[in-house]
Amino acid sequence: MTRQGAQEESDNMLIDEPQLPQRAQIAALPDEFNPSYLKLYYSKLFPHSDLYRWMSYGNDGKHPGCDSSYLGRREFSYTLDNDIFVRYNTFNSAAELENSIKEKCPLKIDIGPIYNLNPANRNAYAGDNVLTPVERELIFDIDMTDYDDVRYCCSGADVCLDCWPLMTVAIKVIDTSLRDDFGFRHILWVYSGRRGVHCWVCDRKARWLTNEQRAAVADYFRVYKGNENSNKKVTLMGQVLHPFLARSYTEVLKEYFETKLLTSQNILSSEERYEKILDMIPDQSIASELRAKWQDGRRSSSAKEDINIVRWEQLKQLLQRHKAQGVRRCVEEIVFTFTYPRLDMEVSKHMNHLLKAPFCVHPKTGRVCVPIDPNNCEEFDPTTVPTLTQLLEELNREGFRSDVEGEWNKTSLGNAIKLFRSSFLQPLLKSCKEEMESSYNAKLQQSKNLLSW
Amino acid sequence: MQVVRSHQSHSTFSSSTGSVSASPTLPLYRSAPELEVRLEDFESFAVDRLRVLKGISDGLSRGKKPDEMEKLVNELWKTNMRHQDSSQVLNKDIISHFVLRLVYCRTEELRKWFLSMESALFRHRFRNQTAEAQRAIMEEFDLPCKAVSNAEFESLKEKLGQVARSIGHNHSLPTADAIYYKVPFEEVPELVAGRKVFINQGYAYVAMNQVVSLVATIFRSLLSKALILTNRKWATSIREQEQHRLTPIVEALCSSYLGPDYSQPKEYGEISLKDIDQLAKSSFPLCMRHLYEKLREDHHLKHAGRMQLGLFLKGVGLNVDDSLAFWREEFSKKVGLEKFEKNYAYNIRHNYGKEGKKTDYTPYSCQKIILSTPGVGDHHGCPYRHFGEENLRAALSRMGVNSRAMEDVMGKVRNRDYQLACTLTFEALHAAPCDAGINHPNQYFSDSQKLLKAKKDSSA
Description:
Chain B: Belongs to the eukaryotic-type primase large subunit family. Chain A is of the alpha+beta class. Chain A has helices spanning 3-16, 22-28, 35-45, 48-56, 94-104, 165-181, 204-207, 211-220, 243-264, 271-278, 284-295, 307-320, 325-339, 345-349, 388-398, 414-452, and strands at 74-80, 84-89, 108-115, 133-135, 138-143, 187-191, 196-201, 355-356, 371-372. In chain A, helix 10 runs antiparallel to helix 11 (284-295). In chain B, the strands form two sheets. Chain B has a four-stranded antiparallel β-sheet, covered by helices on one side. A two-stranded parallel sheet of chain B has the order 1-2.
């Protein structure tokens, strides 16, 4: 922190503290994160039981097919105050989970894999019995900072409504493919609290993928090869696009590029920006022809039409009638460069990666990591996601009542929790139950057959 | 398999019973055969096979294209796996494979290397089989797939054609008599990763000319499991029983061919923080120099970059405390001290075996670096492979490579001889030959230091 910043803050504290009455103080609190509010959040609002039911995958019932050691082999890790990172917390019941969270009040809860053994006892085992992850959701992490070279509105940790559509595109492309191509059904999208989204694929098959298979799915989604040290970022090979890329292009990328990002990011407005695109054109004569057109700004400056759109149409016209296929393909390469999802590959490739649990509160923004409905993801607005302070104000307005379950219902967290249940948790648990039933019956049948011999 | 001395003294080394695989030319190595092996053959067969695997490994790290690899493997196999008695060719193949299993079962790193090379070899040899032999092998593996029915094929014909054209298989566009296999996508990870198949509702549609991937994946997973079992057997019984006979051979076989791993700085002891800037200029290879400069410039590196540079510095002789101080100095400028201690310090201690599994990690070799795939915002990898030509030229001239040497280096790069390009750079900068060639960034460093020290001593 700079010295000036520290000065300002201590000034504020001096002015604010002694004068405000308690009620007004809460209302006047800045939308910042305050660790002492977390306790209230965890005791009144955090959906402990939903987290527990999700993580149990049906193993919490009375069914004889249940694996009672299941939840206890799952790693939860906490980030506590003063940056203390506590790994390998495990819980055997809903009450243990809830009490631990309430007591420790972690700034962040991360969910790890399910291990072969209870990781809390990891030191008790020796020799061949090393702690190995055996089961883990297939996860994806998309972070806006990876798009810094294609967005001009913000950079780093900031996001705004001009660049958020990049995340919308990512959700649409990945979600469609996970469902249609890979056949997954239980997919949860979560706002990461600041500048990105997380995706949890929870189908049984997804949870049992090996590292190599996870890497294969992640690579299927990857079109970026190279970086600022090499010249081009997206190279689309072959005569035609793979059906997945072709579908992504025609159904999502093209539209978002042409109707949103092109103008909101002013992708072709200034020399510095259009040069970056001209660099991507393999045919030098076309690049110079366009450059000549665009440098003479007056001719095309008819006030009605957006300059980005005018220039994009000119570019497309020249490229698309070219005889070399590599040059025609360049239009698509530009669109992919500016819109196609950029995944943090390492997160998806390894089972032992930790990922923040939904409904955590981001310590920098104070915003809750709420689920996003992939079917209506274009309506999701990160700037209106409830913050911790806002939720406590809402609770405050309603008046605290310790005797009522589900206080969240009265706050703006209500819709988020309802969405979590209806679109994700309930269908998931239904499948888990069916799978458990059928695998149990199969086992039963098998042992019967054995007996009859 | 029994190992006997030439004069037929029997030993108890026998891992399991079973018969030689059915396929006459391409064994699947499902179980160790009952064969008697002379001690001399035990070693010499293994060395011959190792030459093949090592050749494949070199070819891959030079980024050779599939058709070049095809030629290379053919050549390697022909020159090394011959036997004057043609009836012994198959035995040599099987025996050498099982001996190398013993050699390469003993650590994760060794297993991984052996697994990749044997799989590459298998894949190559499978492709050279007749269609009939291929089908026989598929049957033997009991593949979990069915040929796509006519009706289903008709409904997907367009998509399948789209995929074939997208990967340049124009000559094999799907026709009515084409055979496609429908398999769960997770059975063909390599085809999925390369978007080489059409995937729908969890199933990949694999063309007949792609079944090699399917078969190789199964081969690989069976071998992977077998190596773990062999390792267990090795550790619990074989090593002890054979300590005067096979164990020395097995141990020598692996170390003599992998080269030093540079996990412990041996020759020059520790280096200190204040010398790093100077050392980076004089003795870092380009890949490390680039990471180092980027770190100084941006005060940040992504994970893979931190691993590549951090382990190199460890091998060079930076101790864990200096290493922490080094990274802290840079990162704290960007992310702040607090965040550094929280997010990054653990990782650095981890590299030195101070946290987590407490494994002492080894610095990356050229081969590993060349095969990495840097993405947006990454600076790791091998500049000779991963930089565009312009960037590479600029970086080399900043290092002080003159224009004549530059053309030689670029020539090697164009031939995808990345390690040779690095060797030429070394020679140009040190005005001295480097006959062994560069195989490891830490070797570059120690060779460079050796030369510089010698120069200093002779001028003093």
